[in-house]
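Researcher: Good morning. I'm working through a list of sequences from a screen, and I'd like to move beyond sequence-only analysis. For each chain I'm collecting a predicted structure so we can compare shapes side by side. This is the next one on the list. No need for commentary yet; just the structure.
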Amino acid sequence: MENPDIIFGKNSVMEALISGKREINKIIISKNIHTDSKINKIKELAQQKGIVFQFAAKEKFQAYNEYNHQGIIASISPVKYVDLEEFINTPRNHNASVVILDGVEDSHNLGAIIRTCVCAGVDGIIIPSRRNVQVNSVVEKTSAGAINHISIIKVNSPVSAVQTLKDNNWWIIATDASAKDNYYDVKYNDMNFGIIMGAEHSGVSKSLLKASDFVVKIPMQNNFNSLNVSNALSAIIFEALRQKLSNKP
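Model: Good morning. Structure tokens for this chain:
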């Protein structure tokens, strides 16, 4: 049975890199195989294209033993990622919005986030190439097809991406449970804005909090702070949509 998320074998991975027709999330190479000219070429091409590659123990490949993987696999995305500069420079007749994810690890959460963003009219979603789930078939299915209606931007450094946005007249809003301001105190309709959402267990990283223009929280009662990241985003992004619609003439 074919796996829609994985390319197996040296020749297949190299061909995918050379052709550029498949969007590669990450390449995994077994620590137990000998490096040869093909492996070196794959690493070289991956570096040129900014694709993450990593070495893993043979146990990582056990789930794929039915395939002739030759100690190398590449995970692929069902959608084409959009370049950040291209996204920023896209002409729009409205203030734009983007959601920036920082450490979301669950495919179902990412799929739900994408679906929420499309429903609320968000223009794009930024995901890091490391320490964050990438777009795969589970994400595609969970999003109910929404991934085809929004720009998905993959970046190597979220901090650099945030700085690029700020340099282009975007305002950055981070979420943090200990923030003083509530999410509904921000006037979203007056600016291009990005909202940073972190994972439940770790939240938004200190470097991204420091780079943000606003830090907001969702007020909680009963000292019970366990909103799922997709639920938390829904509260914030639909407040932004409420403000936008209420300001229409």
